[in-house]
Amino acid sequence: MRQYYSKSKKSIPGLNETDLMKRIVYNTSRSGSFSTFEKWFDDKDRLKKDDICDCANGGMKIDWATYGNKSRGRDYRWFLERSHDHDGNTRDGINYLGSYRRMSSPGIITIYIDNIQVFFWSIICELACNQKYVFTREKIEELAMLCINKTLYHELFHHFIDAQSYVVNGYVYNYYTDEALAVACSRLLVGYETKNNHTYISEFLELAYSYTSPGYSDWVNYKSEEQFLLKLIEYMPLNPSLGIMGQELSPICEGMLYSIIENPNVEIQVA
Ligand SMILES: [Zn+2]
After folding, report:
1. Tens digits of per-residue pLDDT, 194-244?
2. Distance 179 CA to ligand 1 centre (A)
3. Strands 266-270 and 98-101
4. Would you tell me which of 89, 143, 228, 268 could form a disulfide with 222, CB atoms 3.0–4.6 Å apart?
């Protein structure tokens, strides 16, 4: 597998990564007179963690509502655990970072920006407090971009499954497999966006992907490209007879994945 072709993002209606990043990092573009986060950084562009992070008790010192953020979450862990009924349906969408609505015309990917903002900053505070990292604007912006891509790639995987189910015969939806593979796909693609192996990036991603909810948490079984593609071939499903005759299935699966997620029939909405 390889990095997502960045030009593809430019053709997705409603997607503006830089704008989303600034909303998360600086609290810009809010309607109403809410403060930005400019004061959270000192004159050397370093995060003033003692002003915003509650290092003694964990969490953050700030009141999100005063910044116009309506999320009910306060801790990234809350977003990574979901409650389900016996059919595997989520009871409510309050802790969504993103969602995908199947194609009737285009598929709709919704980015829940308030939730992502709280999710993001609670991880930053945990790292800043525990690991004593000095976060600069540059690092914070870089991590926020990864955080947006994390959700984008997850939802694009759901779009891939939606589209490929029109191409391949015999697809049967399985909530748990669907989510596990969506998380694995997101983590693999986000991995290609990180040019280096800095500890603050790997530790950020470690927390950002520490899912505990059923299905989602199984992504660790499909961490490697090989594990991911093997499970995806089985899930789509690609006809195994082709493999038995000697035709390799992984390149077909991979090719289909990129051909759809890099030419997606989706629109982005920000909620
Ligand atoms: Zn999902």
Report:
1. 977 799 999 999 999 999 999 999 999 999 999 999 999 999 999 999 999
2. 5
3. unpaired
4. 228
Q: How far is the CA of 69 from the centre of ligand 1 (A)?
A: 23
CA of 180 from ligand 1 middle (Å) equals 8
- Which residues, in sequence order, are CB contacts of 137 under 8 Å at separation 6+? 25, 41, 45, 47
H or E segment at 268? strand 266-270
Distance of CA 46 from the midpoint of ligand 1 (Å): 34
Query: CA-CA distance, 243 to 59, in Å (whole number)?
Result: 50
Beta-carbon neighbours within 5 Å of ion ligand 1: 179, 182
User: Domain boundaries in the chain?
Assistant: 6-270
Tens-place pLDDT, residues 72-122: 999 999 999 865 544 555 556 788 999 999 988 899 999 999 999 999 999
- The answer to whether 17 and 148 have CB atoms below 8 angstroms apart is yes
Residue 82 φ then ψ, to 5°: -125, 150
